[in-house]
Amino acid sequence: MNHPITARAHTNIALTKYWGKKNEQLIIPNNSSISLTLDEFYTDTTVQFIDELSNDVIYLNDKLLSDNNKIIKFMDIVREKAGISTFAEIHSYNHVPTSAGLASSASGFAALAAAASKAAGLDLNEIELSRLARLGSGSATRSIYGGFAKWKKGNDDKTSYAVSVQDPVKMDIRMIAIVLNNSPKKISSREGMKISVETSPYYESWIKQTNDDLKTVENAIKDNNFTILGKTAELNSMRMHSLTLSSDPSYLYLNNDSLTVIHAVKNLRKNGIECYFTMDAGPNVKIICQSNNVSSIVKKISNLFNNNQIKVSKPGSKVKYL
Length: 322
Ligand code: 2P0
Description:
This protein is an alpha+beta fold. It is built from eight helices and 14 strands. A hairpin with a 2-residue loop joins strand 5 and strand 6. The structure holds ligand 2P0. Ligand 2P0 binds next to helix 4. InterPro entries: GHMP_kinase_C_sf (IPR036554), Mev_decarb (IPR005935), Mev_diP_decarb (IPR029765), MVD-like_N (IPR053859), Mvd1_C (IPR041431), Ribosomal_Su5_D2-typ_SF (IPR020568), Ribsml_uS5_D2-typ_fold_subgr (IPR014721).
């Protein structure tokens, strides 16, 4: 039980978004969501339970974290499941800009779920791992899988988990992340989605619409129809962000640079280069395209931003042990 275990999980970007919880403690969402796991952004986490420790010791990118309630609470769940009381040393390396809308909590909790459960002596299957990751962060539920994954909302801890939709991915698809600001965001997604559920007059319509969008994207994956997938993902992202604008108080994840990218995408499209955008709980914009258009899009965006802000990703793989 006391061997160190290392797991790698890749982040995922939702094509139809999760925004709002039915149960905040168990992280049961109000709607299902569908995502693409990316190869460029991932977290490697090593967990070792050590008898001599009197608390969990957590390092993120070699820096000791003085306090991280989310991780400690999560480790308590793992201990309870495994029937142990030992504390652990955790080393996590994030190859994702932390807290900037590039879903570091997705890869972070998926890698932690895999490493901590195995280090604690549990032998979980993918669905059980997905359920465990969900208790750390909603989007992590989907990062157990590679390629396209769907988080089925379910009604309780047992029935809310993700499944693989397609891995390896058959569609020619790339995501170009434009990293606009990697400082931590002002309103966490947890806080933001709670405000939207409670106050946006459009929340009910969102649920209905995002269910339809999810079916459209699922069919587009089956039919290998990139155009429908891209168009629907872009619409769904704007629909999610319209919840932030219509909440009380209203809040906004986009900044001026995000708008610059959105206009650039629309212009590229007008000029015959097919691409779409999606955004999460931060200013970064992800451009969805196919491999033949990557270089024209990168060229256009690099006139506006530095090359080191532009990261091209292919579909990524499922969680694995290193
Ligand atoms: C998603 N996002 O589907 C949506 C779209 C951001 C925008 O899931 O409270 O860190 O830990 O469940 O998963 C980001 O929120 O929130 C997120 P919690 P999480 O990817």
